[in-house]
Fold this protein.
Amino acid sequence: MYIITEQLKNLGFSINRLDSIIQRNNNKRNFSTLEYFCIYIIMEDIELEVENITHSIKGGNIAFIGPQKQIVFGRAKGEEIYVIAFSSSFYERSTKDSLFLNSQLFFNYDSDIFIAPFINIEQMRVVFMGRMQNFQLKDESLYVSAAHNAIERLILDAFLHIPTDSIKKDIKFDYLHYVNRFKVLLQRDYKKDKKVSYYASELNITARKLTEMTEYVLGQTAKHVIIEKIINECKKALIFSGSTISEIAYELGFSDEGNFSNFIKKHTGKNPSEMK
């Protein structure tokens, strides 16, 4: 579990080298993003496991990962990898900021990670990282402002790598906000609760309203989003975990293997054993 720095607690923002974070974490390489948004500036090759899927990332890339994700860092030194973590309350100051946070960079529906290249490693090290350190030493208010601007710069650069036709310019910001909060809650609680009413209650809206929002943003009912999440987690567990079907059923919050198998058969037409 990620040991939160005092700076992250107090400001809602922190930037650290990966090796120092791992050292502070008793040399453990597994973390959770918790409620934080994370940007990794990667200047050395590394394997990064996100939600049990391994990604081989070359130096010269930036990785964006949203809240409530489980991460394991591979055996890179970590001296050339910087971890930026920040809360939504730290970054959101305008509707534009909300759009950035709720975009495909952090809520990519096809993957738990978004990777974008940057051009000049030395420029990133000297101009970006050195500048941030200077602001931190000079004045906290300037540091906070510089941190916000730095995050925005990284996001804007990454936006250039999102296909134009996939950016929904007419999206309702409040719908997008609620749907992505729903997805964060689902990531956290899918094992213990699979009812639309539970997530609607957590969001202080009705189940009907939540479904209206998911249909607008995702083209799916809220119930279908939950079902799809369970099926995807089942597939990943069957492929990567090595657990038995009974063990996977228990891990995913089903009372027994029979109920789990019936659920999978109903929604996929296949038994769990046929999904490997």
Remarks:
- The mean pLDDT is 86.
